[in-house]
TrEMBL record:
GO molecular function: glutathione binding; glutathione transferase activity
Keyword Transferase set for record: yes
Any coiled-coil regions, as ranges: none
Keywords: Transferase
Source organism (scientific name): Coleophoma cylindrospora
Name listed for the protein in its UniProt record: glutathione transferase
Amino acid sequence: MAFTIIGVDFAYTLSSLLVLAEKGVTDFTLVAPDFKAGEHKTKPHTDKCPFGMVPVLEDNGFILYESRAIARYLAEKYRSVGPALTPEHGDSKAWALFEQFASAEQSNFDHFVQVIISQKHYNPMRGLPTEPAIVEYFETKFREKLDIYDVILGKQLYMGGNEFSLVDIFYMPQVGTLFKIGDGAFVTDRPNIKAWWERVTARDSWKQYAAHATGAQ
């Protein structure tokens, strides 16, 4: 039976859509709330996600919010089709490494890129000022983190090891947004990150959503 994802086909919702595309799953509905009207900040949406955010998954009465949780759920739900995206059950070492790299995405990547994107992209859209001091601080720290990622990706092909996985999918939406706001140099200035990006964006799953994800025509 079809399920519903409340969200849009870019930003954080995109991680769930990429999982489904990798799995070849098309029997779902994507529903975008009326953001301008603040629909996501009022009932019934806040009954599903108290924080008033997207994405939200509705699967036959089961409701789940938070993009990484939804992506993990979908990867497990459809584990038997397409690429596994997560380690084999019972492989404790593989899972430890998977969680290591997944945790790094939140603490060493998203923590910084989310502020940069909010300041430079979403604040102007919302009529809010961009704070240059905040942008400078987070961009400086972000560059330091990316230099480390560039070293890591000189030793492995993907963010979670030598195979494409859910960890890569966690990174891809916000990297796409960097290109959308004209900050693709964060990626292209670092050869190993650039090579990783070229590998993951060559996948058919990404090509389905590339235009909205990066603003490319």
